[in-house]
Design brief:
The structure is a single chain. 44% of the residues lie in helices and 19% in strands. The chain has a four-stranded antiparallel beta sheet with strand order 1-7-6-2. It has a four-stranded mixed beta sheet with strand order 9-8-10-11, with helices on one face. A three-stranded antiparallel beta sheet has the order 3-4-5, with no helix packed on it. Helix 1 crosses helix 3 and helix 4 packs antiparallel against helix 5. The protein is globular, with a radius of gyration of 23 Å. It starts with a strand and ends in a 6-residue tail after the last strand.
Length: 324
Amino acid sequence: MIKTYCYKLYKRKQNKYLVHLIELAGEIYNHCIALHKRYYRLYKIYLDKNKLQVHITKLKKLDKYAHWYELNSQAIQEITDRIERAYTLFFRNLKRKVKTAPPGFKRRKKYKSFTMKLRGYKLLKTKAGQYDNAILIAGKKHKFFKSREIEGNIKTVTVKRNKLGDLYIYFACETDSANSKVKTGTGKIVWYDYGLKPYLKASDGNDIELPMFFRENQSAIKKLNRAFSRKQKNSNGIERVKRKLYKQQYKIANQRKDFQFKLANELCGKYDVIYLKELNLKSMRKLWGIKILSSAHNNFYNILNHQSVKYGVTVTEAPELHIS
């Protein structure tokens, strides 16, 4: 089982180099997208990933692209893998006649992450042999807030930044499924239907209400939006307001995520089998409009599925579900 650990990096001067590597990954990504578009325009097929990787290796030997050596070769390979997956999905959707946009260019400043597999980093250890809260990336030491121990074999390490400019590090680890939580069976089964009021309507009458996180912060967001509209474009003032707006939005997202994780753990500890009505966001959006987006039912379903594996609980969708 793959388990991902997320930690926030300390704010230090060394982080500027990580930001530089992220933007360098964005530069390489855009170059690969340009090659794909040119290749498809000429031959009407997308560029093979292996050919692209060989081409990038040759480009790095030129003076113009010599600075690409700063980014780990496996991190560059991961960029080509990411583009390959995106194009595969795009052409698959074309065959199914599903409207999907092909992978496009991204501004360097808006590019978010790069991923290393086996090389390019070294996670330092304490004298006791446990992983420390420090990691070496490209020879530079970076510290992170270690909120819990890292368990399992590390498969990938991802450095990611959010819109606020904060940096996070993700460790994807292969763990033994035997380490999952052992839960005493309760023999209880429940059916849930999605909604707004209540958030989840239960067959046993224990309906679940969703705290109105967005409504509680709506006045602050409106005030920031008005301030944003009054600022001059590309000014320092508009950047400050934008940062405050992002911070408010992250607060709401984190509150909702915390609620959903706690709810998923509570349900997994209470029931052995959980049936959920098949999620149809399009019809729900027609019924409730944009309000349904703030409920994030799809995120909750994914979180519940993830937690159910640890508890040994069965979670399944029930297309024909009627709860009175």
